[in-house]
Specification:
- The protein is mainly α and about 450 residues long.
- Helix content is about 75%, strand content about 0%.
- The protein is globular and about 65 Å long.
């Protein structure tokens, strides 16, 4: 049996690979920034840089995708060789954390580790997404995307929550060791499961390519032509514009929530409390939202679920910003963490499902990757502008001592710039892609 033949195998493989992305993602995006903000009081801009540098290598997906579509060891499958290799290097890069005694004094070196690790994490993500495009029939895309995203968020949650305790007890070296062992264990999944029957498990194993229709080496210019044709439709280029705007507000919120909660609330939250809220307490509603969102996307439409998630997040940010007098109330602060994490997960599942649905031509893997890359660029912009945005708002107040007002305005703006682009989705029509795909097949 192989992935193309068995639903449970392809679901398990895709989910395991997304879980592998989530563990270090939770540590880098949540655990370590929260720890540094709580213990060393580093600034919004430093937090933003730490979070943003994670996302910079994900823009390389536009390079990885055509390379992966053009070169592979076809006898091992179109995607497996790339997945196994990137998973191995992801684990090895985390060994760079060994020997760091005081992370506040090694921020520059940590940024290098973040960068290198995420170069290969982005490669693994490209390969996994392309594998999903290859092997998932349309009727499975919504639910499977929900399950995949849930597993990444579970990994992120476990990474955020459990590693916040590990870093207190054993420091960065212990965190690195835990992550390396987990990633190496998960690497066994794509080693065990083949894409198609008869393919090689390793380069030296017996077997052959399942089909000669797709060669191990293809002309990258042909891939580029297919990508440009895919984006010639109104639906696809409008979706590009939406993608570039959709996560700016979330990126701003992500940075400012870290410093607001750990430095300015009264009583302020410790890094363990914030990591526990985002990692452990938010896990159940996130899973419910992601899986439920994927199921509902298949049943009622991807655009609806995408809109519900991001409009909901934007409204939650505006409501939170509108009631600063309640920020120090534990129930209100916790409710906001749970709501924005859950609603963002619902929106992400809708986005993934829609992006997969409108990815077409022979280079569909590269097309889908383009959407994912631009989504990360949007997120990156939000992380980077969060600190300068709040500093600008403080300047407008004349350097007022009450920093909470600048947080209030910045979080409110984050909500507004999340809701506004959703209206572009009315111009995204899957029927246009279906007609183009049918014309391509007929030609």
């Amino acid at each position: 049996m192989a992935l193309v033949d068995t639903r449970w195998q392809r679901t398990a493989t895709l989910c395991a690979l997304y879980f592998a992305q989530g563990i270090p993602w939770g540590f880098m995006l949540t655990t370590l920034p929260n720890y540094l903000s709580d213990n060393y009081r580093i600034s919004d801009s430093d937090i933003g840089n730490l979070k943003a540098i994670i996302l910079v290598p994900w823009s390389f997906k536009l390079i990885w995708a055509p390379l992966m579509d053009s070169f592979t060891i076809r006898s091992m499958g179109r995607r497996r060789p790339w997945i196994i290799g990137s998973e191995l290097v992801m684990a090895l890069t985390l060994l760079g954390f060994i020997g760091i005694a005081d992370p506040s004094q090694e921020l520059k070196f940590i940024l290098y580790i973040y960068f290198i690790h995420n170069c290969f994490a982005s490669l693994q993500d490209v390969c996994t997404d392309a594998l999903a495009v290859d092997i998932l029939p349309p009727r499975e895309q919504g639910l499977t995307n929900g399950l995949m995203w849930s597993c990444k968020l579970i990994g992120k949650g476990i990474g955020a929550w459990s590693l916040s305790h590990v870093i207190d007890a054993g420091g960065l070296e212990a965190c690195a060791a835990v992550q390396v062992l987990l990633l190496l264990a998960i690497m066994l999944v794509p080693i065990v499961f083949l894409e198609r029957r008869g393919e090689k498990r390793f380069p030296w194993s017996a077997g052959r390519a399942a089909s000669s229709a797709v060669r191990s080496v293809r002309n990258p210019l042909g891939t580029l032509r297919n990508v440009l044709r895919a984006f010639s439709l109104t639906t696809t280029w409008v979706f590009i514009v939406y993608t570039l705007a959709k996560l700016v507000g979330l990126g701003v919120n992500e940075v400012l929530a870290t410093t607001l909660y750990t430095q300015h609330l009264s009583p302020r939250w410790t890094h363990v409390e914030l990591s526990t809220a985002t990692g452990l307490y938010a896990m159940a509603p996130i899973i419910l939202g992601a899986v439920g969102g994927g199921y509902l996307a298949d049943r009622y439409g991807r655009r609806l679920i995408l809109s519900v998630g991001y409009i909901g997040f934007g409204m939650a940010a505006m409501i939170f910003a509108g009631f600063p007098g309640l920020w120090n109330e534990g129930w209100f602060a916790m409710s906001y963490v749970l709501s924005f994490e859950t609603l963002a997960a619902i929106g992400s599942v809708g986005f993934l499902s829609m992006a997969m649905r409108i990815s077409w031509t022979v280079a569909a893997g590269t097309v889908f990757t383009t959407y994912m890359t631009l989504s990360n660029v949007s997120h990156l912009i939000g992380n980077w502008i969060a600190g300068p945005l709040r500093e600008w708002l403080l300047w407008l107040q004349g350097g007022a001592a009450d920093h909470l007002v600048s947080y209030q305005w910045a979080l409110g703006l984050a909500g507004i710039i999340t809701v506004a682009p959703v209206f572009l989705l009315f111009l995204v029509k899957t029927g246009e892609v279906d007609r183009a795909r049918a014309a391509e097949s007929a030609g």
